[in-house]
Amino acid sequence: MFHVDHLILITGLLLLLGIASSKLSARFGVPVLVLFLLLGMLAGSEGLGGIEFENYEVAHAIGTLALAIILFDGGLSTPMAAVRSVWKPSLVLATVGVLITAVVTGLAASWILGISLLHGLLLGSIVASTDAAAVFSVLRSSGIGLPHRLTSLLEIESGANDPMGIFLTIGLIEIVLGRMGFGLGLLTLFVKQMSLGALVGLAAGYSAIWTVNRIHLPAAGLYPILVSTFGLLAYGLAASLGGSGFLAIYLAGIMIGNSRIVFQRGILLFHNAGAWLAQIVMFVVLGLLSFPSRLWNVAERGVLVAAVLMFAARPLAVVPLLLFRFTWRELAFVCWVGLKGAVPIVLATFPLLANVPAASLLFDVTFFVVVLSTVVQGFTMPLVARKLGLQTPAEIQPPLTLEISSLRHVDRDIVDFAVSPQSLAAGRLIRELALPDGVVIALIARGDKTIPPRGSTRIEAGDHVILILCPDTRNLVNQVFAGRVAEGPPTMPVADEG
Question: Which CATH class name applies to 3-393?
Answer without folding.
Answer: mainly alpha
